[in-house]
Amino acid sequence: MNFRGSSSDEPEINLIPFIDVLLVILIFLMLSTTYAKFTELQVNLPSAAADPVKDRPAQIVVAVSADGRYAVDGQSVDGRNVEALAAALQKAESGQDQPFIVISADATAAHQSVINVLDAARRVGLNRITFAAQLPSPGSNAQP
Length: 144
Prior knowledge:
3 helices, Nucleotidyltransferase, domain 5, five-stranded mixed sheet, 14% strand, alpha/beta, single chain, 5 strands
């Protein structure tokens, strides 16, 4: 005689231990990942090996010196703030149809000085911007 009833228990898959293991693996990977440090980058600026421009459209050349002074089309800008630079760009832009802004910054110029030029150009409404660079010298270690 069989006193046991028919057992129709279906096997269950318990997901909680699986989730626990995946969580531990995720935490381990997050803690063991090394992140790149931007201070370790070796950057040599500015030099570029590009073809020279054949035709010259209307352009405004903005020079940025190493100590943060500006010159727009060869004329020195009084002051080092964005408002003075925007006024100089507005004056240089008058009479030209959508000129290019050529930023010719010293290789050791502060990043903020170049950002000020970009901000001043945006305020004036000039959105065609390019950067000037020189060809690398034959003995330099800059790569094209």
